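User: Hello! I'm new to structural biology and keep hearing that structure can be predicted from sequence alone. Could you demonstrate with Replication-relaxation? Please show me the input and the output so I can see what each looks like.

Assistant: Of course. The first part below is the input, the amino acid sequence of Replication-relaxation. The second part is the output, the predicted structure written as tokens.
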Amino acid sequence: MADVDTGSRDRLAVAVLAQYRMATTEQMHLILSPDVRIEQTRRRLMKLRGEGLIDRVTLPQAGRTRVWFATRYGAQVASEWPELRGRRPPRGAHDRTAVRLGVGHGLAVTETGLAFLQDARRRGDLCQPLDWIPEVHHPLGGGEAVIPDALLYYRSRGTRRTGSGEDGGLMLRAFVEVDRATMGPERLAAKLGAYARLHQYVPAPPPGARRPLAVQEETWRRQYPLFPRLLFILDGTGPTGIHTRLQALGAAARDLALTGFLREVPVLAAAMTDLLQHGPSAPIWRPVQNPEQRVSWTHSRG
């Protein structure tokens, strides 16, 4: 049984790094095996590195923090597993230099996913490590695409009693954008428009194609029964910068062209400091239409 457990945790470690792009030793420990000593996680990672499946870079400016990533070979092996089949690896995922240069944003995205994972464990909700999927490509036509920092799948615990017992809970999906103040508030707010276009996007038939018999529908409906809610995580600045970006998002939300989108899709923003201190399920989220309000990210639509 121990060998089976070791093999499954080895496999999960490779799968996580192939999907997440990067993680520190501590992050990997909390994702994989928070119930054991961190030395066991270090040994596991070193073993997988010796097998050529993962590698690391060391950040001297951060107390020699080790940042792990899947090698091209490791990602190729993982891509054959059912749980990762069909998923594109994040950009620059196997390049040592790309990992080192993108470590600030990459580790912030991993830390955000870890916050949801740990919160689900505390609450008894269902959110597994591979339910956090960075950089899912959603085409908009003309070479444009919406690529959220991550797509989150999350099932909240059942709260309603039925004739057969407690219900299965609520299945939630969210597009997550982690903003570290590397772009101006206006560019951040412009992402609202991109998601609104994705919400409405119906691909045009190719030139010369016969008119389809059935009415074409938005492309997102092929993947999701409901359009995922949109969560902005604001990091990299103090309270004044957070306030400025919330104001920019609020101003964008007043655009009449976005009214229909915002009526159907919850769009919420929270500070990274609040997320890490209180957990994602706490009422730390501000609806972009009403930044003075505080709600849970799982609040119902409408």
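User: So the tokens describe the shape?

Assistant: Right, they're a compact way of writing down the 3D structure. Reading them back into a model, for example: Residues 159-167 have pLDDT under 50 and may be disordered.
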